[in-house]
UniProtKB/TrEMBL annotation:
Keyword Transmembrane: no
SMART domains documented for this protein: HTH_MARR (SM00347)
PANTHER family, alphabetized: HTH-TYPE TRANSCRIPTIONAL REPRESSOR YETL (PTHR33164:SF43), TRANSCRIPTIONAL REGULATOR, MARR FAMILY (PTHR33164)
InterPro entries named in the record: HTH_MarR-typ, MarR/SlyA-like, Tscrpt_reg_MarR-type_CS, WH-like_DNA-bd_sf, WH_DNA-bd_sf
Membrane-spanning segments: none
Organism, scientific name: Gordonia caeni
Xref: Pfam families: MarR_2 (PF12802)
Name of the protein in question: HTH marR-type domain-containing protein
Length: 163
């Protein structure tokens, strides 16, 4: 299939820079046209960015993870990750347990409440994107879907467990 521009004239493949600029512009337009921002939804949780990032790291883990691995995944010092974990545990979003083999190692995992909070954030995020996309004509939205789905196959999966 030959590419055609918006007026039907055969077009050449866009450069990587042109594609990156186009995708960034599209994302900016979606962000600016949304009625409720994902940032507002996250801000309502009253969690810090580091605490939220820890929760997302834990959501990608197959099971309870040592605090030091979570700290590495978030880019925090062990002490800062420990303080963030303390707050998440106090809020009932994260569970902290001693490792069965080494009691010095503390393992973190999301609680059901933590999973529920992330599930709600994903729901808000999807709704956030859905609104502006509803304004796009169906034929264009179908082509966008197909292009994004095809491109996603070349990117690493997020591996976030969505309850």
């Amino acid at each position: 299939m030959r590419l055609r521009n918006h007026i039907g004239v055969p077009a050449t493949s866009p450069t990587l820079d042109a594609t990156a600029t186009c995708v960034a512009d599209f994302i900016d337009r979606v962000l600016s046209s949304a009625k409720v921002t994902a940032v507002d939804s996250i801000a309502a949780t009253e969690l810090t960015v580091s605490q939220l990032r820890m929760m997302f790291v834990l959501a990608r883990c197959a099971g309870p993870s040592p605090v030091n691995e979570v700290a590495d995944g978030v880019g925090l010092s062990l002490a800062a990750a420990g303080r963030a974990a303390d707050r998440l545990v106090a809020l009932g979003l994260v569970d902290r347990r001693e490792d069965d083999r080494d009691r010095r190692v503390k393992r973190l995992s999301l609680t059901d409440t933590g999973h529920d909070l992330l599930a709600e954030q994903f729901r808000v995020h999807a709704e956030f994107v859905r609104g502006p996309l509803a304004e796009v004509p169906t034929d264009v939205r179908t082509r966008l879907h197909d292009a994004v789905a095809a491109a996603a196959q070349y990117l690493p999966a997020a591996h976030i467990c969505r309850p």
